[in-house]
Amino acid sequence: YSDKNQNKARHGADPNAQRSHPMSLKMRLTLLALGALLFASIALIGTARMAQSEAEARFEALILSSKAELWGKIISTEVERMGTGMQGLTRDRNTLAAMAAGDRAALADSARPTFNRLSASETLSRLQLTDTRGQVLFSAPADASGVTRKAVVQQALAERAVVQGLQRDDDGTLVTVLAFPMYQRGQLAGAGVFMRTLDTALSDLSMANESRNFIVGQRGVEYTTDEGFLQTITTDPARIVAGDSVQRARDGEGHWYSVAVIPVPAPDGQALAHLVSVSDYTESFNSQANINRLA
Description:
Number of strands: 10
Strand order of the largest sheet: 2-1-5-4-3
Number of helices: 9
Distance between the termini: 65 Å
Structural class: alpha+beta
């Protein structure tokens, strides 16, 4: 060996080479720690997003159930309001006698003032009186004839009971109906039919939860609390009705809306139309978007 090699043999390996092993191990530990931290961060973000999705699902379910419950209470109030006018009609002897006799002229003379009074007090929007077969004998404010197609009227006559529910009137208008049997000297004389259109119910819903509300049926928008608004978030209301129960929508000015779609059922459960209830949640949406960006 040369002198240099002899020194290496006596004193061992190069000191710099010995120090390189601890540095390499430290680097590995550092990388391992960074990898674990990265994995934990990804897991936390994933968990946070899953929790956010679950929270959003619960929030959407709450929106739907609360609006459906409120709408149901409002419709019940509409029926109760009509119920306050029943007694004045069922105890009107002239009306009952004319119904039993099938005398349309006499019935009109006695029933017209009753309709005017109940309409002025906003107890009802429409009134019909039928014979025992459901044949319309009197109708106000618009004339009608023939056998009514409203199932609740036929049910009230068949069961001799008070029946209520949402129905389409014979002209196709969606209304809240209260149908009840009427008797002359203990014999069934026919049925009284009180109806209210849904304008007031929609307005009450809008005032209760600061929403915009619409009734959308096969013919399009049938009732609205905000004329023209629905067209700012969709070009086809039928697509909203056919979509999810709770949706998000955005208008051209950057406002975000929560859209709840609730069936409007007849007493037999068949959907006659859909309530579309729209609430502005731009502020909460933008707050959540900022949180997501920070995450």
